[in-house]
Amino acid sequence: MQYFPPALETLVEQFARLPGVGTKSAQRLAFHVLSLSEEEAGRFAQAILSAKQAIHCCPVCQNLTEGDGPCPICVSPRRDAGVVCVVADAKDVIAMERSREYNGLYHVLHGVISPMNHVGPDDLHVKSLVERVAGGTVHEVIMATNPDTEGEATAMYLSRLLKPFGVKVTRLAYGIPVGSHLEFADDATLMRALEGRREM
């Protein structure tokens, strides 16, 4: 039995396709959109279309940007061009920038190696990373992929690929989160914390 008009059902289905949005949330979003005025709904739809048309990948780092040239991070004279932080997605760049500690450049892979999902190195922006490193201006590459199976496999693959160029390849340290307790940490986290310890 169909509870909603077909147009509303279609709208709910489209919202449900978004990551992290279940059926109930999709229904709430659809009803919210219906409650908008014609003008507000038009602005919402136009914002989606405008973003799709204007945003593309930076030709240098593959981060999302507007315009034809490199992104603002790549052209900034304040950034250290000799250090490149490799991340899986554009949203990881935002996370790194929030720390306000990193002042190098980035390289966005747009995914990780995942044989289960049929994603291999050729499906990622690996070739452009190798070309950047081969250029000779990069002296350190920081692997900042997630500490899960796919992230580790991607970091190891890239590390082996870049080592012949004589660059220093490092991995983000991870371990016990600030504010947590040792008794709640799992074995793998404790092991990583011990491996990544540093002198005080």
Question: What do these coordinates show?
Answer:
With about 200 residues, the protein is of the alpha/beta class. The chain folds into two domains: about 5-55, RecR Domain 1 (Helicase, Ruva Protein, domain 3), CATH 1.10.8.420; about 60-170, Dna Topoisomerase Vi A Subunit, Chain: A, domain 2 (3-Layer(aba) Sandwich), CATH 3.40.1360. About 45% of the residues lie in helices and about 15% in strands. It contains eight helices and six strands; from the N terminus they run H-H-H-E-E-H-E-H-E-H-E-H-E-H. The strands form two sheets. The chain has a four-stranded parallel beta sheet. The chain has a two-stranded antiparallel ribbon with strand order 1-2. Helix 1 (about 5-15) crosses helix 2. The longest helix is centred in the first third of the chain and has 17 residues, at about 40-55. The radius of gyration is 21 Å and the shape is globular. The model has no long low-confidence stretch (mean pLDDT about 90).
How far is the N terminus from the C terminus?
Answer: 66 Å
Number of domains: 2
**Helical fraction:** 40-55%
Examine the secondary-structure arrangement and name the CATH architecture of the largest domain.
Answer: 3-Layer(aba) Sandwich
Low-confidence stretches: none
What is the highest CATH level, the class of the largest domain?
A: Alpha Beta
The global form is globular
Mean pLDDT value? 89
Number of strands: 6
Q: Major sheet: size, sense and barrel closure?
A: 4 strands, parallel
Strand order of the largest sheet: 4-3-5-6
Order of helices and strands: HHHEEHEHEHEHEH
Rounded to an integer in angstroms, the radius of gyration calculated over CA atoms is 21 Å
